[in-house]
Every structure is written in structure tokens, then in C-alpha cells.
Design a protein that fits this description.
With 192 residues, the protein is of the alpha+beta class. The chain is 30% helix and 36% strand. The strands form two sheets. Strands 1, 5, 6, 7, 8, 9, 10 and 11 form an eight-stranded antiparallel beta sheet that branches. A three-stranded antiparallel beta sheet has the order 2-3-4, with no helix packed on it. A hairpin with a 2-residue loop joins strand 10 and strand 11 (155-160). Helix 2 runs antiparallel to helix 3 (112-128). The chain is globular and about 40 Å long.
Length: 192
């Protein structure tokens, strides 16, 4: 079962579907509501895009929403700018599943030298993870000069410093080699 959960997070065979509707101040994605903007430590971020990630066309893994500064386009999303990613889970996953997936995905998307530099920070993030149940929400928030904060259901779990680390962890979803390219494109507002 753990293998299935890890695959659910990382599998390249993941498909993405979206049924998004917008209404005053919020966007609905397959029954999950995301605000159209958020304020993080005095910084207002706008919804860039939202999507549903499905595993093997059947299992709904999670919905996600990405928030960026106004007028930021997709190619600049990994720059040293404020960003906020929210993932609401539809399945239960263990903290070990998150740790393994994070380690594997970052290792596969950065150089060997960068991975070695980032390893202590990746391990620090992995120690922050908790088990999740359906409807739980993890959020990653990066603020330049502050770092990347992980929260679970709006409860702060910890902050990891550094723009290089932020780029590597956000790249899991919005980088060149993301969990799923269609999911990435929808988060970046490139496709509907």
C-alpha cells in the first residue's frame, strides 16, 4: 500500500483533470474551494491556477492551487519571488511517503552538486511532514529573505531558508520535470 501511495505522488502516469468554476472571491476545483487571492505576511498573491491530480484516471490524489504576485507569468514562477502552493489531499498519506517523494523528486531535478548542497535542507523539510487524511491541506509559502514555510491545515510546521531550496521544492510541481506537466501548466494558468 505504501508503494501505491508513493507512486500516487510521483508517477509519471498521472493524469490531470479539472472542473474549475469561478465565483466571487473563490475558484472551485472538483468540489474543492480555493480563494482567488491570499495575503501572506502582508504580501498579496493572486491565484495563478488550480487543478486536480488523478492517479491512473481513477484515484483523485489531491487538488492544488498556486498563488503568485500579480502579473507574474509561468516562466517566472520559480524566480526569487513570493509564491504560495496549497494542496488538499483526497487520500491518506504518511509522512514517510512525503519524505521519500520529496527526496526522489528533488534528486531527479537538480544537479548532483546542487542535491548535495540542498540535502541538509531537504532532510529538515522531511522531518516536518506529518501524516495526512482526506481534506487535509499542506501549503508551501516562499517569501524572499524569509524562506519556505510548510503548514498543515494552516498550522506552521517550520521554515527552511534559501532561494535555491525554494526553487528546488516548488519545481516538484511547477518546474521542468514536474510530477505532471498538465498539472503544472494548469497551476501556472497556461491551460484550462
Amino acid at each position: 500500500m505504501m508503494k501505491l501511495k508513493t507512486i500516487c505522488i510521483l508517477s509519471a502516469i498521472i493524469c490531470v483533470s479539472i472542473s474549475a468554476t469561478c465565483h466571487a472571491g473563490a475558484t472551485m476545483v472538483n468540489g474543492t474551494e480555493f480563494s482567488n487571492s491570499v495575503e501572506v505576511r502582508g504580501t498579496r498573491l493572486q491565484l495563478s491556477g488550480a487543478a486536480l491530480l488523478k492517479y491512473m484516471f481513477l484515484i483523485e490524489a489531491y487538488t492544488g492551487a498556486l498563488y503568485l504576485p500579480e502579473k507574474t507569468d509561468g516562466p517566472n514562477a520559480l524566480d526569487d519571488i513570493s509564491k504560495h502552493l496549497v494542496l488538499e489531499y483526497r487520500v491518506a498519506l504518511s509522512s514517510d511517503d512525503f519524505a521519500k517523494a520529496t527526496m526522489e523528486k528533488i534528486k531527479g531535478s537538480v544537479s548532483k552538486e546542487a542535491f548535495e548542497r540542498l540535502l541538509p535542507k531537504i532532510k529538515a523539510l522531511n522531518r516536518l511532514y506529518k501524516d495526512v487524511q482526506p481534506k487535509d491541506r499542506y501549503a508551501l509559502t516562499y517569501l524572499p529573505g524569509v524562506g519556505t514555510q510548510l503548514t498543515l491545515n494552516a498550522e506552521p510546521l517550520g521554515t527552511i531558508e534559501g532561494s535555491e531550496f525554494a526553487r528546488a521544492v516548488f519545481a516538484i510541481w511547477i518546474g521542468e520535470n514536474p510530477i505532471d506537466k498538465t498539472f503544472r501548466d494548469r497551476l501556472l494558468g497556461k491551460s484550462k
